[in-house]
# Entry
Amino acid sequence: MSEQLVRPARTLQGSLVLPGDKSISHRYAMLAGLAEGTTRLSNFSTGADPHSSLACMAALGATVENKGTHIEVIGTGGEFRQPTVDLDCGNSGSTMRMLSGLIAAHPHTFTLIGDHSLTLRPMERIRKPLSLMGVKMDLVDGHAPITIHGGPLTAIDFDTPIPSAQVKTAVLFAGLQASGTTSLSESVRTRDHSEHALRAFGATLRRDQDRLSIPGGQKLHAIDATVPGDMSSAAFFLCAALLFPDSNLILDSLGMNPTRSALLDVVTALGARIKVLNLEEHHGEVIGTIQINAAPSALTTPFKIDGALTAQLIDELPVLSAIAPYTGTGISFRDAKELRIKESDRIALVAKNLKAMGAEFTEYEDGLDIPGNQQLHGATIDSGTDHRIAMAFAIAALRAEGDTLIDGAEAAAISFPEFFTHLETLTD
# Structure
């Protein structure tokens, strides 16, 4: 376990190009492995999770060449081979859930494994729709390891019981290779990177209000693409900018997909002044350069997060919670029970570390109430080997009295290996 010392800062200024979006990198890696031809990807995520997806593609017969953030994948042309080893998903629930849908149509037996944290996360949610399509899937009490006995799939009409981009993606990936047209509805619209990625690789799919449909039997073709900067990684620096009245931060080539823009709305409501300096679209994804300053009235607006907004901000809730004590009126969030079954019980870990830093709060099964106008002090932070907890409390430490020690800081490498280097560069 590594430790990282974070000292209080006086300001946050500078410019930053963020690593490639983790969600998009996963999807591009998997579809490239299935497609015909050679896919070339620039600014591929440096996080460990998307590289688990790449390793699984190699195990399934794709040729993967890794040149830092530039990746080349020679696809299998739609024919995965029987792997000679288990498909190791590492710490990545995204890999395990989405890959299950991608491989289900292939006439082999696949075993998907992961680290201890991944074996604690629920996988029953993907078994139901895939089983309806004809997949035989073996779980261990609803968890990994997963064994999939692949074969011909039949299209289904499925209503997702909980908002989940990963479940949606598993169904779409399976439907791409099924007999007939698969349709899926979601009561809360989740991030749509899969839809854009499928279209980029040549697939046809249609959205009609809250329902998606994808015809089966489609072939994919290789692409050249640049992965936009990761909005979830940007969240930490956006929140840090709110903490300092004279902050000035520029984020270049940032993914600004509308289904991920809720964070920008929230930090604006909390007092950030955001100026869009450039905006482009590539393969359906919006990419922009933005400038962020803290307004004089930053962090004075009361804010409650619940319902659909919670689903849209699920990855950003830890860092929003970490800065909540510094706001004038606090932040509360509900309907976030999903946080209990992420890489860690994120509600419990946020509560534990807020307490360590001297904050007052009220914990609920599905959220937290965190009053504002509090001054935190430095403490030893337990990351729980969860990357978002380690980074969230590094941001809280910037305004604390005294130094803060992040225990298990190496967890940041799961999504953002450069995080602490960038934080040191931007703060004074």
